[in-house]
Design brief:
The structure holds 2 protein chains of 2 kinds. By secondary structure, chain A is mainly alpha-helical. Chain A contains 20 helices and 3 strands. In chain A, strands 1-2-3 form a 3-stranded mixed sheet. In chain B, a hairpin with a 4-residue loop joins strand 2 and strand 3. The chains are: A mainly alpha, B mainly alpha.
Chain lengths: 488, 511
């Protein structure tokens, strides 16, 4: 039995950035104060999240009941180890992304900056709402809010490419939400009579197995935000957004919302036992590894740096999904850890891509020859992020792959292990050439006047790169949160 | 019958008061000279009517089966006519919705109507009173009189203050509705022949043969299907909506359409339970057709009002679907959807009117990208669009969710048919919302944001949309016992096979 304590803190965390967004709108004529509000709200939010850590580390679950809409249909918050890993990472990275955004948006003289900062904090609120949601309805509510609030960010440039990308974005996410998520929730409601998450799942084990399997497929298809192929192509299109958006939202907050939902559905709606009973474990893992391999291969072919990173994200998200679907202690630890590990590594990579764009105006990998000589800090950070994505020991990514490999072995699947190793090779295949080109190719003489990006951008990316290395040696903080959950 | 009638716990005839106060007010408008005075007087009358209707909610006892606040006076005893008024959990929310919209319809016409203000306000006040009468009357003839009387002011509203094709739209509206109500009259006479009275409560205990039930069901169904409107008799609706002035559209969408679904619940389900169970699959098929076809048509429109009009066809399809899955969740969903569609679509039509007042166009392309000029307008449009597509946390979500769970409980196949309708709703609402707020290529350079009067029109609707999205309990508490009673009267499952039913019916026709 899990221990629950009541606290209003999760609500406050969600409301902090929502309140900040109102202030940001009111301060639209004073850019300095507007951005100060974003930054302060980020810091407050992070510390509020931290206050919940001790209780959760002891294996407690923080619960806050808000609205009872219908019997079994409640708005309720629930914080466990899972939620906190995601919440800590997103709120921590929000602080750095705000700093980085100031450099990026001012460096490029972007328009509609108030809208940008407003939607950014609203999205953060909604993403944390997903992290803290304690029922399928709450999850759905915040999941859809994330889609709405990110739309203006994706179409930020308001040119035809941005509108097309944003349209694809909303069509995929909203379409899957209505076509698959809604019926899945309705069927769950009819089967279970209740949508509140339970520790071992809520679906009755004696329901019609065919219906349960169809329902599972509906759920997996519904969560387009997890980026599983074939519902992944919104993610590369969303890269038309300004780079800080791609960095925080499309490498951390939004896509992690997707994998987080997958985890909730597997562990709190179905439950490990039912997953085993329906023989869903290995097929789902194979499905996820399909995405890992295909997305990595597509990434090999991309010359646009952000597009390559986007496909890399698609493939890395599938690692997390695979970890969750394997329902063993080590695979789940791997999956949950990778939420944090991938966040730090990939945000570093995106920060670097943005820094390169602001400093040099370059978007394509083929233009990056010798860029490491003029932007040493940026490219060093890029290297660390890339090594972590490949899974080199001493970086965060290694820890994940270690646990995932153990998880594959727990399920006696040599094949999955081979997939994991092959994909590491593919990761190396699309990252090493970038690094090699940046440091070992000759610099184009026309680029000799270029300089390193502004400090307000270089500092955040150096910090996240350092954390990537630190997590490779000391995964303890997140590990203890996750094990607090698994222990109970 | 007497056990179903609970006498008024308030000391004055409250239902007659809120029915006839606007009608008397309409007469008093004759005495006022200037246009501004007429407007102000109309607001006062409608506002007062709304305030007077609040005690209905406060003093209503949800646990009492039958009708409350009953007024029972002899009218024409020779023909079994009584002046019988009363409300239960089904009609009360609709009456409150009607009185709630009264001041809003007057306020939204403040500038929009510049000619013949007196006549316009008379029509508005008349519809106001008559609509309450429809929901409150418990005598079939009284109901029929109110039901038909409504056509006159509605016809005038469209035909005098409407757009360029107003005569066509008004005549189409009247012909369709009159064509339907002939069958209503036949059904009422049919019931009278069996019951010997026109009092609705007395008819609840009738034991009709299945053939009688079938014909009476059909009569009611045709009459109300036109009003809802159900596929394929929906074609009057887009015409009427597009041509009507804002207030007319709001009345049509928010209240008039609900008279159809109210009739289906009140008469079809309650008076002909066996036929309802037998024939529900056909009504369900029509509902699914309305949901999908209405949604597809809506997606193809570039006139904002037409788009909302077709979306109403689709949304009302959800209501009839919810009613005819014949389980508690479905009917609850249908009822909630009636209220929420009223609030949401009413809000959308108000916004469309405000847009037209500023830009003199309802075309999506002309009005693209207005969010920058009118942030407050954009906020309300966003909110009502989200509610219309049943976004979680808005009122319509709860209704649609219940309709869907009713449908999925009925059969998974039916549910699978309806889901694309939910998707279509998202598609067309996002199209209008994203286009008008952030789209590119708009032709409007300058437009003022909402003024105080418009804020006053929209904010109560917006508040209710959010409140009912998280806390529908006040509505559910009122209507649940009434719906449970209604469903308890239905036979558990079909007593006859369909073949036997049609045999009996053809027998009754040919002999």
């Amino acid at each position: 039995m899990e221990m629950t304590t009541f606290s209003i803190m999760p609500v406050l965390v969600v409301l902090t950035s929502a309140a900040a967004s109102i202030l940001i709108m009111l301060l639209r004529d004073q850019p300095d104060r507007r951005e100060a509000v974003s930054l302060i709200a980020g810091i407050i939010k992070f510390f509020m999240v931290i206050t919940m850590v001790p209780a959760v580390r002891e294996g407690q679950v923080i619960v806050c009941d808000l609205f009872h809409i219908l019997p079994g249909l409640n708005v309720v918050f629930r914080v466990d180890g899972f939620s906190l890993v995601f919440a800590c990472v997103s709120s921590f990275l929000w602080i750095f992304t705000t700093l980085y955004s100031i450099g990026y948006m001012r460096g490029l003289n972007e328009h509609a900056q108030t809208r940008y900062y407003t939607c950014f904090s609203l999205t953060l609120s909604a993403a944390l709402g997903v992290a803290f949601s304690g029922s399928l309805f709450t999850l759905y509510l915040f999941y859809e809010l994330v889609s709405i609030f990110t739309y203006p960010l994706v179409m930020h440039h308001e040119d035809s490419e941005a509108f097309a990308g944003a349209k694809k974005y909303i069509v995929y996410l909203m379409g899957a939400g209505k076509l698959f998520f809604l019926p899945a929730i309705v069927i769950t409601y009819i089967l279970a009579g209740n949508l509140d998450f339970g520790p071992g799942g809520i679906l009755p084990h004696d329901a019609d197995p065919t219906l349960l399997i169809v329902l599972y497929i509906l759920f997996i298809a519904a969560i387009a935000k997890a980026g599983l192929i074939p519902l992944h192509s919104w993610l590369p299109s969303a890269m038309v957004a300004p780079t800080p958006v791609s960095a925080l939202l499309h490498a951390v907050a939004v896509v992690k919302v997707g994998v987080f939902c997958v985890a909730r559905i597997i562990y709190n709606v179905y439950g490990p036992e039912l997953m085993q009973q329906l023989h869903l474990v290995l097929p789902s893992a194979y499905f996820a590894s399909g995405t890992i391999l295909i997305a990595s291969m597509i990434a090999l072919t991309q010359d646009n740096l952000k597009a390559r990173l986007a496909y890399s994200t698609v493939s890395q998200l599938a690692y997390i999904v695979m970890g969750f679907t394997l329902v063993s202690m080590s695979s789940m630890t791997g999956g949950a850890l990778h939420i944090a590990n991938h966040a730090f590594s990939k945000i570093t990579l995106f920060y670097c891509a943005g820094a390169i764009f602001v400093a040099t105006g370059k978007k394509y990998i083929s233009q990056l020859s010798g860029i490491g000589r003029i932007m040493p800090f940026t490219m060093a950070a890029f290297t660390i992020g890339a090594l972590s994505m490949i899974g080199i020991p001493g970086t965060a990514g290694f820890i994940t792959k270690w646990f995932l490999g153990l998880g594959a072995l727990d399920n006696n699947s040599m094949l999955l292990l081979i997939f994991i190793l092959t994909s590491s090779l593919l990761n190396a295949g699309y990252f090493i050439p970038v690094i090699y080109r940046a440091f070992f190719f000759k610099l184009d003489p026309a680029d000799a006047h270029l300089r390193e990006a502004p400090k307000i951008m270089v500092v955040p990316l150096s910090v996240t790169a350092c954390i990537t290395v630190l997590l490779g040696f000391f995964p303890e903080p997140f590990l203890r949160l996750i094990q607090g959950l698994l222990g109970s | 019958m007497e056990s179903l009638l609970h006498i008024n716990s308030i000391t004055f005839p409250i239902l007659s008061l809120i029915t006839f106060m606007p009608i008397v007010g309409a007469g008093m408008l004759m005495l006022i000279r200037d246009d501004q005075g007429i407007r102000i007087f109309s607001v006062i009358v409608t506002l007062f009517t709304f305030i007077m209707s609040i005690p209905l909610y406060v003093h209503f006892d949800p646990d009492l089966a039958g009708f409350q606040f009953v007024e029972n006076k002899p009218w024409v005893p020779r023909f079994g006519l009584t002046y019988l008024m009363g409300v239960d959990g089904i009609s009360l929310p609709l009456i409150l919705l009607t009185t709630f919209f009264g001041p809003i319809t007057v306020l939204c016409s403040w500038r929009y109507i510049a000619t013949r203000v007196r006549e316009f306000m008379i029509c508005i006040l008349l519809t106001q009173g008559i609509m309450v009468g429809v929901f409150a009357s418990l005598d079939m003839v009284l109901f029929y009189i109110f039901f038909e009387a409504l056509l006159i002011p509605m016809f005038l509203l469209i035909a005098i203050w409407g757009g360029p094709r107003r005569i066509y739209a008004a005549i189409k509206f009247v012909l369709f509705t009159l064509g339907g109500s002939i069958f209503l009259l036949l059904a009422i006479i049919g019931l009278y022949m069996k019951a010997g009275t026109f009092a609705y409560p007395a008819m609840l205990g009738l034991n009709l043969t299945i053939t009688w039930e079938f014909w009476i069901f059909l009569g009611f169904l045709i009459a109300f299907a036109v009003k809802v409107p159900m596929f394929p008799v929906h074609t009057w609706l887009p015409a009427a909506h597009v041509e009507a002035p804002t207030a007319g559209s709001v009345i049509l969408a928010s209240i008039l359409l609900k008279m159809g679904t109210y009739g289906l619940l009140r008469f079809n389900l309650a008076l002909t339970p066996h036929a309802s169970v037998e024939l529900s699959p056909y009504v369900l098929a029509l509902s699914v057709a309305a949901i999908l076809y209405g949604g597809l048509l809506s997606l193809a429109q570039s006139d904002i009002k037409k788009l909302i009009a077709y979306s109403s066809v689709s949304h009302m399809g959800f209501v009839t679907l919810g009613i005819f899955v014949l389980n508690l969740q479905g009917t609850q969903g249908g009822m909630l959807q009636m209220i929420n569609h009223g609030l949401t679509t009413g809000g959308l039509f108000l916004l469309a009117g405000m847009l037209y007042e500023r830009t003199h166009s309802r075309h999506l392309d002309v009005n693209a990208g207005l969010g920058r000029l009118m942030p407050a307008f954009a906020f309300f449009l966003g909110l009502f669009s989200l509610s219309s597509l049943a976004f979680p946390g808005t009122a319509s979500f709860v209704g649609e969710f219940l309709c869907l769970s009713g449908a999925f409980s009925f059969s998974n196949k039916l549910g699978a048919w309806v889901i694309p309708g939910a998707l279509l709703a998202a598609a067309y609402m996002f199209r209008i919302f994203l286009r008008v707020i952030w789209g590119s290529g708009g032709k409007i350079e300058l437009a003022a944001d909402l003024n105080l009067r418009e804020w006053i029109c929209l904010s109560p609707l917006a508040l209710l949309v959010i409140i009912f999205g998280f806390h529908p309990a006040p509505l559910m508490k009122i209507m649940n016992p009434a719906l449970e009673n209604l469903l308890a009267r239905l036979p558990r499952e079909g007593t006859l096979s369909l073949a036997t039913l049609f045999n009996e019916i053809s027998f009754s026709v040919f002999n």
